[in-house]
Design a protein that fits this description.
Layout: H1 2-7, H2 46-56, E1 59-64, H3 66-70, H4 89-94, E2 97-102, H5 112-132, E3 137-139, H6 143-151, E4 155-159, E5 162-163, H7 171-179, E6 184-186, E7 193-194, E8 197-198, H8 200-212, E9 215-217, H9 223-232, E10 238-239, H10 256-264, E11 268-272, H11 275-278, H12 282-296, E12 301-304, H13 323-332, H14 337-365, H15 373-376
Parallel strand pairs: 1-2, 2-4, 3-4, 5-6, 6-9, 10-11, 11-12
Antiparallel strand pairs: 7-8
């Protein structure tokens, strides 16, 4: 299957700014990264090595809250630099970030029509920001499009995760959000994905997500929901903000048994760079990455900056430009460069390719679902 996935080209995306992405970007201005040659000099500084590796394998950041943070600003300039937020184009370049997922999560308490409307507003804002930062940012929906954007010397922006309340219990709304560019959905905060697990309607939501190519985010989901999604989903899943509960007992962090199950299912655990979940120092974050790699495997661990989400960040990781400091710490601990490349870039690309592959196959055998929550969960 991996070979088939690698052969896939990007599918035609959806309407609006995130639509016209089926063809690669034009050759003009393409900047192709030079192949990275491993550094063998034992006297070479880890920071220098970190920057060299990141030049070839940039960070795919799994969670960034910039759209919501910009709502409070009357004016901003992300191209030249914006000190009032943690993320702007100069710092994305300094941090060697090649792609990032923009969170569309909402404040607690919004549900029903209000949640749907607020999510649509965030989608609109995100597209506007990308359009006005065309020199630094480009929209993307698939692994192929992400690679195209990187080759143009820009940062790829993917939309999601959004919260499940944004669906309003309607598979039709899920399809429309996908058409508008949504690529990740968090399965919490709704009756059909609760502490008891997935209901029949919840299972149908997962099947429809697989058919569309929307990735399931299980951070904060119950153990029952996580296990049921792992057994049901034909596409890889991810946890957008989960560290190791063994090291820090935060409710969104995962215990070792679930980490092992996630790794066995070829899922992805994106470790958040927040003091609350990972700890107060860069070394604490590295401890979580070490632990998850040991328990779940190198192909199961990734990075989630969680910048501009209102969270406090560990020392030396105060904004999105600080990723080289974290990679340097991992190199000091003996991480192989191949594992660093998976951590920063490869694992996210694999999950995106898996979602694409599953959607293509599912669309050949399954029509859009017309199921409703009233008929399945009555």
């Amino acid at each position: 299957m991996a070979d088939l996935q690698d052969d896939l080209r990007p599918t035609a995306a959806a309407a609006g700014e995130f639509d016209e992405l089926a063809e690669p970007y034009p050759d003009e201005g393409i900047v192709t990264a030079e192949p990275y040659e491993p550094v063998s000099d034992p006297d070479d500084a880890p920071m220098t090595r970190a920057r060299a590796i990141l030049a070839a394998h940039p960070v795919a950041d799994g969670y960034n809250g910039l759209p919501w943070a910009l709502k409070r600003l009357s004016w901003y300039d992300l191209e030249d630099g914006e000190s009032t937020v943690d993320t702007d184009v100069p710092r994305l370049r300094s941090g060697h970030v090649g792609a990032l997922f923009w969170s569309l999560h909402l404040p607690e308490g919004l549900d029903g029509d209000r949640a749907v409307g607020a999510t649509l507003e965030q989608l609109d804002l995100a597209k506007t920001v990308v359009r006005t930062c065309a020199e630094g940012l480009r929209p993307a929906c698939t692994a192929g499009q992400v690679a195209d954007v990187r080759n143009c010397g820009r940062v790829a922006v993917l939309l999601g995760p959004a919260g499940a309340p944004a669906l309003g219990d309607s598979l039709g709304i899920l399809r429309q959000l996908h058409l508008l560019g949504l690529r990740v959905l968090t399965l919490t905060g709704v009756s059909w994905a609760s502490e008891a697990g997935l209901t029949r309607f919840g299972e149908e939501v997962v099947r429809e997500m697989n058919r569309l190519g929307v990735i399931a985010d299980l951070s904060g989901a119950s153990a029952q929901t996580l296990r049921r999604v792992l057994s049901l989903s034909r596409a890889p899943v991810l946890c957008s903000r989960s560290a190791a509960r063994t090291l820090r007992p935060h409710p969104a962090n995962l215990p070792d048994d679930l980490l092992a199950e996630l790794g066995a299912a070829k899922g992805l655990c994106l470790v958040p760079l927040t003091a609350e979940q990972a700890g107060p120092t860069v070394r604490d974050v590295a401890d979580h990455l070490d632990h998850i790699r040991t328990v779940a495997g190198a192909q199961c661990v990734g990075l989630s900056g969680t910048y501009d989400s209102g969270a406090a960040h560990p020392q030396e990781l105060g904004d999105i430009s600080c990723y080289p400091r974290l990679i340097a710490e991992l190199l000091r601990r003996g991480w192989e460069e191949a594992d660093v490349a998976l951590l920063t870039w490869g694992n996210v690309q694999r999950v995106l390719r898996g979602a694409d592959f599953t959607a293509r196959a599912a669309q050949q055998r399954r029509e859009p679902s017309t199921a409703t929550i009233s008929e399945l969960d009555a």
